[in-house]
């Protein structure tokens, strides 16, 4: 008999504004999947451990650090490109990747800045592995205000967050892999839906080739 080839893992990305619960849901999801014997691995962008990641970390934490906005955008993108071989290796080994922020964060936070063109922002993302599903966590402003306060990083203020949300909405309309999740519910209720969508996605793409981003 011919050996069945390994079914690939799914590339699942979480997006959403600050405090929408991405990190919370990602970590729970990896645990939920492992309990069901589904191979899964957690990744987050920016990946602050690499050489570009250290520059990004400095930029985010130190608001006095001035870097050209275009250069910074390319650095966030390079931080994803640095991880492409690793990501493909996981997926080809049948391991599902649960990713906390990705190219859509890159586009949304950069295009929210003055003098940054959204079309320009999309270009360096082209060719990266395309997520099989983007779970877009939605919470209204009133609900968000009840969650623990903003931290002290560069983008953590209301005006920027509002612009970021507008770009996200545009990306939502333009991309067929987005799915909106109502995140104004208990962590457990959101997790039930997130797990269901993830298992459906894993099943539906396991025999399909991985695509690449093409904005
Ligand atoms: N950035 C960029 O500019 N370009 C790029 O290419 C990329 C990123 C990839 C750092 O990201 C910054 O980098 C980010 C975008 C920019 N700037 N901002 N803003 P980050 O991912 O490191 O950001 P973060 O510090 O982890 O925060 P976050 O991701 O915005 O939060 P979150 O992960 O969505 O939420 P959380 O940590 O899971 O939850 C927040 C709090 O709410 C926490 O106390 C939870 O216990 C609570 N929570 C969570 N869920 C619930 C529910 N359902 N009910 C009640 N309370 C809840
Ligand atoms: Mg987070």
From TrEMBL:
It comes from the Eukaryota. The keyword Kinase applies. Signal peptide: none annotated. Pathway: Pyrimidine metabolism; dTTP biosynthesis. Coiled coil: none annotated. It is an enzyme of class 2 (transferase). Keywords: ATP-binding, Kinase, Nucleotide biosynthesis, Nucleotide-binding, Transferase. Its EC number is 2.7.4.9. Residues 14-193 form the Thymidylate kinase-like domain. Belongs to the thymidylate kinase family. This is dTMP kinase. It comes from Molorchus minor. The chain holds residues 74 to 288 of 301 of the full protein.
């Amino acid at each position: 008999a011919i050996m069945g080839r390994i079914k690939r893992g799914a590339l699942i990305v979480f997006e959403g504004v600050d405090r929408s619960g991405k990190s919370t849901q990602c970590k729970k999801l990896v645990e939920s999947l492992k309990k069901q014997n589904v191979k899964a691995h957690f990744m987050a962008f920016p990946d602050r451990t690499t050489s570009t990641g250290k520059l990004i970390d400095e930029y985010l934490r130190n608001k006095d650090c001035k870097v050209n906005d275009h250069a910074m955008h390319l650095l966030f993108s390079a931080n994803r490109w640095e991880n492409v071989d690793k990501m493909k290796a996981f997926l080809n080994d049948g391991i599902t990747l649960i990713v906390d922020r990705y190219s859509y964060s890159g586009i949304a936070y950069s295009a929210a800045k003055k003098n940054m063109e959204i079309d320009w922002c999309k270009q360096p993302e082209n060719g990266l592995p395309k997520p099989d599903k983007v779970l877009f966590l939605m919470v209204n402003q009133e609900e968000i205000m009840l969650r623990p306060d903003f931290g002290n990083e560069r983008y953590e203020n209301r005006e920027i967050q509002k612009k970021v949300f507008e770009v996200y909405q545009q990306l939502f309309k333009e991309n067929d892999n987005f799915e909106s999740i109502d995140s104004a519910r208990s962590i457990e209720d959101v997790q039930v839906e997130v797990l269901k969508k993830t298992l459906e996605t894993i099943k539906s793409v396991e025999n399909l080739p991985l695509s690449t981003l093409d904005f």
